[in-house]
Prior knowledge:
The chain is an alpha/beta fold. It has helices at 6-21, 57-62, 65-68, 81-89, 104-108, 152-163, 178-186, 199-206, 230-235, 237-256, 258-268, 273-280, 288-294, 304-317, 334-343, and strands at residues 44-48, 73-77, 95-99, 113-122, 126-130, 144-147, 172-175, 192-196, 210-214, 223-229, 283-285. The strands form two sheets. A six-stranded mixed sheet has the order 2-1-3-10-4-11, sandwiched between helices. A five-stranded mixed sheet has the order 7-6-8-5-9, with helices on both faces. The longest helix has 20 residues, at 237-256. The two termini are 38 Å apart. Keywords: Signal, Transport.
Amino acid sequence: MRLKKYIALAMVLLTFGLLLAGCGKSQTESTGSTGGGKASNTPIKIGLSPWAGYYPWYLAEEKGFFKKYGVNVELVWFPVYSDALQAFVTEKLDADSVVLSDILAPASKGIPVKVVLVIDNSAGAEGIVVKPQYNSIADLKGKKVGTEFGTVDHFMLVKELDKVGLKESDVQLTNMSINDAGTAFIAGNLDAASIWEPFLSKAVKEGKGKVIMSSADSPGLIADLLVFNDKTIKERPDDVKKILMAWFDALEWWKQNPDEAFGILAKKANTSVEDYKTLNKGVKIFSLDDNLKAFTKADNMQYIGYTGTEIAKFLKSKGMLESIPDVEKSLDGSFVEAIAKEKK
């Protein structure tokens, strides 16, 4: 489960902002080419937390792909998603696996973070579950709906209401944690809930609900990313590139060895292979080609810069961002571009 807590993050950003106040920020652009950067054997620490898209990092580790490229990587596990995010913005991690929406607050504060990889898109792992008698989003007018304010699931709900001419005020919207929303729906205290897995499946199974819309219907809306701090990008660009090469090799190995791979992934997720496969169906792991498209500028949600800006506008409208950041400044597709060029 990944919890996205903007209030907690705001406190972290305030502290981190004070650390930045006395420091000048270099504007040097990174490059995905080899032949640059400071050599170091100090491990690059990458944070990850419970989410189906993040577990494949363990394939890169256990099958020796980091070693193959001679890069020293330490995967740091956080049972709570927001703890990993806090560790990243306070420089206890070099990189973190995060949701696109969660780079927006640091970016708006001028904290230099760089997106170098799109890990996955949610493709059904988030959705709107309703009681059996409702058949459309329009049916929710005047009904009790629960979600966690400021999360991507809140954003998804508002976008769907807007499509049918409804506002948040047209439903009885209740702010509660995602797991509480799932529990409340199962107990019959909500008519609908906008939630993510595993609560979505539980609400369907135990609450006799049905999913009338999921993230599979809005490709690109909910993206998971690998982000690095600016210091690591500038000092060790070769190692950043090698990490991405190891990632893509791990995905290819998974494709060729699905049984062994799912065994490793399920063990790391502390679940059965069958249950892990179910969770995995809710995400689309991004290939190298998918990444090239995601970093290519466009006026739609295939481009992560566009999606990030749309989410930033939403968060600002809810008072959760003071300003809308220039999301493009946080994107660095040079590494995936360099890898793709070498593979031609």
